[in-house]
Amino acid sequence: INVNGRDQQFRRNSGNLNGTSSAGSSKSRELQEQRKQLPIAQGREALIEQIANHHVTVLLGETGSGKTTQVPQYLLESGIAGSGIIAVTQPRRVAATSLAARVAAEQGTTLGGLVGYSVRFDEVAGPDMRIKYMTDGMLVRELLSDPLLTRYSVVVVDEAHERTLRTDLLITKLKTILKKRNGGIFPEGKGKGKAAATSGNPLKVIIMSATLDAEKFSKFYNNCKILYVKGRQHSVKIYHTAESQVDYVDAALRTFFQIHVDHPPGDVLIFLPGQEDIESLDKSIRLYANRLPVDKMAVMTCPMFAALPPAQQAKIFQSTPTNTRKCILATNIAETSITIPGIKYVIDTGKHKEKLHLAHDTGSGFDALLTRDITKSSAMQRAGRAGREDKGYCFRLYTEEAFEAMAVSSEPEIRRTSLTSAALQLKCLDEDIEDLDFMDRPDVESIMSALKSLWFLNAIDKSRRITDAGRSMAAFPLEPNLASAVLESVKNTCTLEVIDIVSVLSSTSKLFFDISDEREAAAEVRRKFRHRSGDHMTIVNALRSYQDVAATESKAARKEWCRKQYLNERTLLEAIKIRDQLRATCEKMGIDWRTSAQDDEKLVTKSLFRGLVLHSALLQPDGITFKQVYGRSVIKIHPGSTLADQKVPAIIYDELVYTNHIYARGVSAIPKAFLAEISIQIKNWVA
Length: 687
Ligand code: ADP
Ligand code: MG
Fold this sequence. Notes:
The protein is of the alpha/beta class. About 40% of the residues lie in helices and about 20% in strands. It has 26 helices and 22 strands. Strands 5-4-6-3-7-8-2-9 form an eight-stranded mixed sheet, with helices on both faces. Strand 12, helix 11 and strand 13 (about 325-330) form a beta-alpha-beta unit. Adenosine-5'-diphosphate (ADP) binds near residues 68, 101 and 341.
C-alpha cells in the first residue's frame, strides 16, 4: 500500500539498546503464573525483608518489571501493611484506574473490594479496601482532612521520576509525617519488627522510579537504601528519519503501513503528543486499513489517552485476534506507567504535551499545554517498549541529530507550573510553600505569582493568612479560580448555571469538536446554542439541550444527536458526573446549588469574572485586540469563539493558546464596570 504517495525514509542508528536473556510470559497461562514470571518475583523475599526493616525504601526498576502491580500485593500478602490501607500514587488517572483493575483481577476480586481507586471526580472504594491506587493529587487532597494520613500504613509513591508537582509535594510532606508518626526516618533498632514498635501507627514509605535518578530520592530521605529490580530488555534496533518531519502524524501513518506490509507479525505502539493527534491518526489508519488487499493481516487500532473511558482502555490488554496486527496509539502514558504486552514495533513522533507556566511573558502568568520535543530519557523509554518480550524495532520520526540535541531529562514540574492550587492547599495546613523542604525548590517569582493569585481570589488576606473563602475554595475538587467562581455564584444566586459551566470546564476533553475541514458546517449547527454573552452561557445552552434530548431519546439517538451538533458526548457525560459531585460538595457545605440566574446572564458572568479576574482583558483602540488587565500580553479572541467577530469592551477567558498569535479561548463579554469594582481591592497587594 502506498500512503500519500511516498515511503518514509529511515537511517539505521549506530547504537542499539542492550539486550539480555530470553524468557517471556505465555498469555494463556493463569494470572498467578504470570505474576510469578515477572522479573520482580525473584526479588520478592529480599524486598519484603528490606521494607519490613526500614521506614523508607527507594525501589528502582525497569518498566514492566512488576513494581506497580506486585509491590502492593507483596505488602498485603506478607502482612507488612498491618491493618492499614496501602496507597499507591500515580501521576495519571488512566494509570491509577487501569492498574487497580489489573491488581483486583490478580487478587481474584472485583474492583471496589480489596482493591480500589481514587481519581478526581471518580472513586471506586469499599469498606474492605486494602490497596488503593490513586492520583498523587488525590492523596495531597486527603492531607487536608487527615494531615498525618493515618488511614494508610504504607504510601507507595510510584513513577517518582516524573517529578510532578503533587508527587514532589508528597515526597516533602511524607518526610515530616514520618517524623511525626515514626519518630524519624530511620527505625530506632535495625531488627525485624522493631520498626513497628516505635509508634502506635507507623508509616512505611516506598518511592518507586523507572529511571536512574534514584540517588536524589535516597539523599532526600537521609540516604535510605536503594533496591534495584532487573528487568528484561531485548535488543531494539533504532532507526531515525533521514530528514526532519514537519507533519509527524502523516509520517507516523506512512511508517505504520510500511511496518504492516513489510515486517513480520508483532503489535505496534505509536507515541503521539495528545488526544487530537491520536484521534486523527486513528481515523486515517482505519481508513487505509480498509483498503488493504484481502491477503494482508487486518489492523486493529486502540487509542490510549487520559480521557478514554475505562471500557475502551481494557481493549488494549485484550489479546490480538488471529491474523490481526494491533496498533496502539498512545500519549506518554505508555512510556513508563502502563506496559502493554505484545509490542514489537515502536513509532516515536518525539513529541509530548507539557504544561508550562509562562509567567515572564504575561506578568500575571498562565499555564499553557504545549506540544514540545521529548527528552532523551523519554526517547530511550519509548524505544525500550519494543523490546520487552523479544527483539524489537523503534522508528523515530526525527533525525539522529535531533535526538542528540534533546535535553537529557525534563525539569521537575514544580519549577515550571503554576503553584496557586498547591499554595492554597498548603495554606489550609498552616504551611507556606516557601518554607518547605523540597527536592528542588520552586522559583521565588513563581511563589510570588501564586500568592498574588490567591490574593486576587480573596483566598488569603493582607498578612497572607488563609481566609474563610480560601478554605471553602480548597474544599472543592477544583482549581482555586473555578472554586472561587462557584462561591461567588452563591452571592449572585446563579449557582445552577455556574456549576454547569465549571463542570464542563473541568472535564478532560473539550465540549465542542474542532473539526477543521468541517468548521463551517459545525459553526452553522452550533449557532442555536450561541449566547450573546459568550462561550460560557453557550456551554449552558448546549448542556441543557443535550439533557432535553437525553430525557426522551434512546442512547443511540442521543449519540447521533451529539454527532450532528459536533458535540463531544463523552464530555457531556463526564460533565454531568462532575456536576453531581460539585452539587454534593455544595450540599455538604450548606450551599443551595439550585439558585438560578433565570434570564439575567450578567449574574453568571459576574461570578465567573470573580474567579477569572486574572484572565480579563480590555479592548484596545484598534477594536480587534485586547490587552490583559493584569498582564502585558496582547491577545485576540479565538476564531472558534462565539464572540469571534463581535466588538465587546472587555472579556474574561478560560485559557490562552499560542499559535501565530496569543488567542483567548472560552470567552465571555463583561462590562468595564466589573473591572473598576475590583481594582480597589487588588491595588492593596504588596509584593
Ligand atoms: P512496572 O511498574 O515495573 O513498570 P507493572 O507492575 O506495571 O510493571 O507491570 C507488570 C506486568 O503487568 C506487565 O507485564 C504488564 O503488561 C502487566 N499488566 C499491567 N496491567 C495489565 C492489564 N490491565 N492487563 C494485562 N496485563 C497487565
Ligand atoms: Mg509502574
